[in-house]
Design goal:
Structural class: alpha+beta
Largest sheet: 4 strands, antiparallel
Strand order of the largest sheet: 2-1-3-4
Number of helices: 2
Distance between the termini: 35 Å
Order of helices and strands: EEHEEH
Helix content: 25-40%
Oligomer: single chain
Shape: elongated
Number of strands: 4
Radius of gyration: 15 Å
């Protein structure tokens, strides 16, 4: 994937490098970004390659691409979908 997911992490910015796993980038973000935190999906070229001053990076999350729900909630959501599908 040629995209990165960023979200605020304390005083800095966290970067997720998604792996090809069959999920869309939005589903990866919903799952892997902590619950309630906003995230943005950026092209890899829009994320600085030099990580020396990562704690000084800034990003505007006033118009996020979405909000994380965290892995526990995401897996529970998937289990509920599977359960609903098996009842059909």
């Amino acid at each position: 994937m040629m995209a990165r997911i960023i979200y605020p992490d304390g005083d800095g910015i966290a970067v997720i490098i998604p792996a090809a796993c069959g999920l869309s980038i939005n589903e990866i973000a919903r799952k892997d970004v902590p619950a309630g935190l906003p995230y943005k999906i950026l092209e890899v070229t829009d994320v600085p390659a030099d990580r020396t001053f990562r704690d000084a990076w800034e990003a505007d999350f006033t118009d996020p691409d979405g909000y994380g729900i965290g892995s526990d909630a995401w897996f529970a959501e998937q289990a509920a979908k599977q359960e609903g599908a098996s009842e059909l």
